[in-house]
Write the C-alpha cells for this entry.
Amino acid sequence: MAQITIDSVSKVFATARKRTVALNETSLTIDHCETVCVVGPSGCGKTTMLNLIAGFIRPTAGSISLDGREVEGPAADRAVVFQADAVFPWLTVAGNIAFGPRMQGMPRARRAERIERFLDLVGLSDFAKAYPKELSGGMRKRVDLARAYASGPDVLLLDEPFGALDLFTKETMWTSLRRVADAEPKTIVFVTHDIEEALFLGDRVIVMTPRPARVHSVVDVPFGPDRNLDLRADPDFQALRIDIAHSLREVHDDTA
Ligand SMILES: Nc1ncnc2c1ncn2[C@@H]1O[C@H](COP(=O)(O)OP(=O)(O)O)[C@@H](O)[C@H]1O
Ligand SMILES: [Mg+2]
C-alpha cells in the first residue's frame, strides 16, 4: 500500500543573497496505485515537490507521509526516474535491471524471473546482453523504467522522464509505461509539461500555479485503463486538453 499525503507543505530555498519560495502550503493526497500527473509552468516547483516526496530534501513547513509514516529521507520504497537516464553504462541491460534486486539480496532464481518479466514488459527481451551505448535514447529510457520498477518500490516518481525524446519515441514510451503500470500497479507521480502526456497517462491531472506552487486545479481523467494512442483524437480528450491549456494560460496571466 502506498498513499502519499502532502500536508500544507512549504519549501523555501534560502541562500545568502536570495530567498525562493518554491512551494507554498501545498496539499494533495495521492491514492494507492493512482497515477497523478503534475503539470505547471516551468520553475513553479514541480521538481521540488517530487524531490520532497523522494526525501532528497525536507519541507520548510508541513509534512509528507507515505501511508501515515512521515517521509524523512530517501528509501527503497520510492524510485525516481529523471529526464537524464540513470542506467549504468558498464552493465548490460539485464545487469541494469538486476541491480536493485541484487542490492536487496533477492535470490538468484527470483531475480532471473524478474529480469525476464521486465525485459518482456518493456520490449527489450532481445537486448538483454546489450550495453547501454548500443541502444537508442528511447530504449535506454525503457531500461531506466524497468530498472526503477524491478527494484520493487511502492511509489514511482518521474520527473519529465520523456522530455528529451522525440514525439514518436515518446509515444512508444507512453505505451510501455502503461503496460508496465498495468502489470505491476504502483502509486505514480509523473511531472510533465506535456498536457497530452498527462491526460494519456494520468488518472488525475494536477495543474499547479506559478511559483510558489500550489494546486490550481485537479482534473479527473475519465478514460478507463485501456487507452491507445488514438484516444488523443477523441473529442472528450481534446476538450480536456484545451481546458487544461486554458488553466495554464490563466495561471500565467495572473502573474504577468
Ligand atoms: N536547491 C535550490 N536552491 C535554490 N533555489 C532552488 C533550488 N531548487 C529549486 N530552486 C528554485 O525553486 C523554484 C522551483 O524550481 P523547480 O522545482 O525546479 O521548478 P520546476 O520543476 O517546476 O521547473 C525555481 O525558482 C528554482 O530556481
Ligand atoms: Mg523541473
